[in-house]
Design a protein that fits this description.
Layout lengths: L18 H28 L4 E5 L1 H4 L1 E5 L3 E4 L4 E10 L6 E6 L6 E3 L2 E2 L5 E7 L9 E12 L2 E6 L3 H7 L14 E5 L17
């Protein structure tokens, strides 16, 4: 037989599970939550609200894309990447930047002017990089649309579709990534699709 349960002075009574007791308990909890909301409401109204939207083109009001998914350039030199914008009810300037790279990189021509849909972003890599170094980076654009600071990452799907011609939907994990390799000669061409073998 199982041992008998013993009640000691340290035992805590269970909450009343009867319908009447449970209903009263829920009413008390709801009243307490309502009081907390009423107390917090003045502070919430007084605090300034900053909105930051980060996501795809539907979130940002514009989309960015590049037709390059890899770049090879010697250390200390620069390369260009053409960035295209697909606008959605926003015609203002879009400021471009790089993510994923260490310090030492400089960017010029990093603004898509108002009512313009394309720009050639110029990037200069530091001289300290060694031959054979491989890095990955992304291009992002931001713009103030109303009171919202909208950010969007440039898609590399045009280049990925060339890289994987047999895939209708290339891997999403690769979208937005650009490989940068330090080489002896410069190359910023998009990857060409593999040639089909003749039977």
């Amino acid at each position: 037989m199982p041992p008998a349960l013993r009640l000691t002075s340290a035992s805590k009574p269970c909450r009343d599970r009867s319908p009447a007791g449970y209903g009263a308990w829920r009413v008390g909890v709801n009243l307490a939550l309502l009081a907390l909301l009423l107390l917090a409401a003045p502070a919430a109204r007084a605090a300034p609200v900053a909105i930051l939207a980060f996501g795809d083109s539907l979130t940002a009001g514009f989309g960015l894309s590049v037709e390059t998914e890899r770049v090879s350039v010697p250390a200390g030199e620069s390369f260009e990447v053409e960035v295209q914008a697909a606008r959605r009810e926003y015609d203002g300037p879009i400021h471009l930047g790089l993510i994923g790279l260490p310090e030492g990189f400089t960017v010029t021509n990093a603004v898509i002017p108002a009512k313009t849909n394309v720009v050639k972003l110029q990037v200069t890599i530091p001289e300290e990089l060694a031959l054979g170094d491989l890095l990955h980076f992304g291009i992002v654009g931001n713009a103030m649309i109303g009171e919202t600071n909208c950010l969007a990452r440039a898609s590399t799907l045009p280049a990925l579709r060339n890289l994987f011609p047999g895939l209708r939907y290339p891997p999403r994990e690769l979208d937005g990534l650009i490989a940068l390799s330090v080489a002896a000669s410069k190359s910023t061409e998009a990857t060409s699709p593999p040639k089909k073998r003749k039977k």
